[in-house]
Amino acid sequence: MTRxxxxxxxxxxxxxxxxxxxxxxGATINALxxxxxxxxxxxxxxxxxxxxxxxxxxxxxxxxxxx
Length: 67
What we know:
It is globular and about 30 Å long. Helices cover 43% and strands 0% of the residues. It has 3 helices and no strands.
């Protein structure tokens, strides 16, 4: 019987920056920018803010990758 790692909870909020999301999720800025690009969004700086809906989509996308 194998045990899977517990799900990580990432607290998000409207207007958070990529830097905030990176710190909370443990993902790199580059990984987050890549996911946003795949979603059709363009974020140039780690200090650009994103909506709560977009942050949620990014976090859900992160669950597909091993951090």
